[in-house]
Structure formats: C-alpha cells, structure tokens
Write a structure and sequence with these properties.
Mean pLDDT: 85
Distance between the termini: 5 Å
Number of helices: 10
Largest sheet: none
Strand content: under 5%
Oligomer: single chain
Order of helices and strands: HHHHHHHHHH
Number of strands: 0
C-alpha cells in the first residue's frame, strides 16, 4: 500500500518503524529460543565430542542426539538442558534483532526502488545482516557456548569453563582480557552466521513465494510454517561445518594474552578438524542442528510474521 501525504509528513514515523522492526526480530527469536534451547545444548555437546581426535581414540559419551537427551536429562535434569539459557536469550535479542531488523529494512529499500528482491539479492542482504548481527551478539554467544559445554563429571566434552552465571562470566572475561576478550571468536561466528543467514533468509523468501504461487496458499501461519521448515533443512546442510568450528573456537581455553590455545581462527579450526577427524568431523551434531534449526526457524518466522502484522509493518 502507498503512504499517504499525511503519513509522509510525519518525520518521527520512520524511526518508530525501525525500532519496531528491531523489536519484532528480537522478540520472535527469543520466543523461538525458549523452545529450541535444549537442542542447542545437545548440539554443542555433540560438536565438542572427540575434538581433534580420530574416531575410536576417544570415549563416545553421547551416541546421538536422542542418547544425549537421555544422558543429560538423567544426570543433570531439565536444568542441564537449559544451561546457558540467559545467554541464549541475550544472544537472540542482540544478534537476531539486528539481523532480521536489518534484513527487513534492506528489503523495504529494494521495494521502494520499484524492485522485488530476488534470491541473489536476498542472499546478499541476509549475509550482510547476519554478519552485522553476529558481531553484535558475539560476546553472548561465547558465554552461552561455554555454559552449555559444562557437563557433569565423567560426561564432559570439550574444555570446561565452569562459569557460575551470565554476568559473572562477562565480568571474568572482561577483567582478564578486556573488551577484546569478549569479542574473541567473533570472526568464526560472523562466518557461521553469514552462511546460515544468507541461506535461511533467501531460501525462506523463495520458498514462501513458491508455496504461495504453486499451491495457492494465503499469507498466513500455514504458509510461514512450510516455508520455514524447508529453509531450515537448507541451513542445517550448509551451516554445520561453520557451526562446529564456531563452537570450538569459542569454547577453547585461552592463554594469558587472551588468545585461543587450540585454534587461531575459523580456517585453522576447519583444517585441524578435517586433519584429525576427517570431513565428517565437520558434520558432528548435524542431526541435532536440524532438529533445533528446523523448529527454531519455523517458530522464528511464524512469530516474526505475526508480530510484523500486529504492528502493521507488513508491506504490500
């Protein structure tokens, strides 16, 4: 729909819309996180299992995502599945609020210029939005990962940081290594999200249009659900190698200078993982990732679409 002259003369409205776009993105992903976080914890444990060790050279604590669910629930209870939840919610607010809000603004800019965004444009916009969001949310993702990795004695995978809480963890890292320490590993996360966001947002937009045109689905929950679930499958396949390296870079121990003791960065982590564990090492936890990213993607876009409609941000 076109903006009326009265609306165009209100200078404060664009600022309000930008704020609401950020807010709807944050709220949508935080809502999804409440449901998907346990699978994120299981995924993190599986991805750290056998780190830089060949198959057969380490004890397999978790056989698969379902066994991991059983073991964690039995030994640590429901609280074990929700480790790092506060950090996860903060990450979703910081990262995805920025990512989805920026993506929506870029799409609106395209439409104002009389062009409907295509797959390539959506991929670029999604990647840019994701990189920006990943940088903003990097400290929260690091603490969340380290808290999720902390397991019961005898069931540990990966280095154990043993933080006592979200804010004490932030304070500890800042005291030891300053602001640079809080953003350690941001490059790995930015690569991970650039791939995931570009695939997710471009696939979602394309799948949504395809389903609407092919099956005549009206714009509503059913359309959002189907498009989101298909997009989630694409994300899991493309993003898992970068997800594994991101988790490992964040969780590794650090020296007195604040630098990681295992990996120098994303490329180093990729090479060391493949050398020690083979290519399939990059796909550890892929089942957990899809079981997590599928419902998370569905819930994120369903919540996001409904929130945008609620605040009348949907563009015709």
């Amino acid at each position: 729909c076109e903006m009326s002259e009265a609306d165009a003369q209100r200078p404060a409205k664009p600022q309000v819309q930008q704020w609401l776009k950020y807010s709807t993105g944050s709220l949508a992903t935080m809502g999804a996180c409440l449901f998907s976080h346990p699978l994120e914890t299981l995924k993190t444990r599986l991805q750290l299992q056998g780190e830089m060790q060949a198959k057969g050279q380490y004890q397999k604590v978790y056989k698969n995502v379902f066994h991991a669910l059983y073991v964690v629930t039995k030994t640590e209870g429901i609280r074990g599945l929700q480790k790092g939840l506060a950090g996860g919610l903060l990450y979703q607010a910081m990262m995805n609020g920025t990512r989805l809000g920026t993506f929506d603004l870029l799409q609106d800019a395209q439409r104002r210029n009389g062009r409907e965004p295509d797959v390539f444009t959506n991929a670029l916009a999604g990647a840019f939005s994701g990189v920006l969001g990943a940088f903003v949310g990097s400290p929260a993702f690091m603490i969340k990962t380290q808290q999720q990795a902390a397991a019961a004695e005898g069931l540990t995978t990966g280095f154990q940081h043993r933080h006592t809480g979200l804010f004490s963890a932030f304070r500890s890292v800042y005291t030891q290594h300053g602001l640079a320490g809080l953003w350690r590993g941001a490059g790995a996360s930015m690569t991970r999200v650039a791939v995931g966001s570009g695939v997710q947002l471009s696939c979602y937009s394309k799948c949504k249009k395809y389903a609407a045109d092919t099956f005549g689905l009206a714009d509503g929950v059913a359309l959002h659900f189907g498009a989101s679930f298909m997009a989630g499958a694409c994300v899991a396949l493309m993003m898992n190698p970068f997800d594994v390296t991101s988790v490992r870079v964040y969780n590794q121990p650090t020296g007195p200078d604040g630098k990681g003791l295992y990996y120098k960065g994303t490329i180093d982590a990729l090479l060391k993982t493949v050398k020690a564990e083979g290519v399939f090492g990059l796909y550890k936890g892929v089942g957990a990732l899809y079981l997590r990213i599928g419902p998370h993607t569905v819930l994120t876009f369903v919540f996001w679409e409904q929130l945008k409609r609620l605040v009348r941000l949907e563009q015709d």
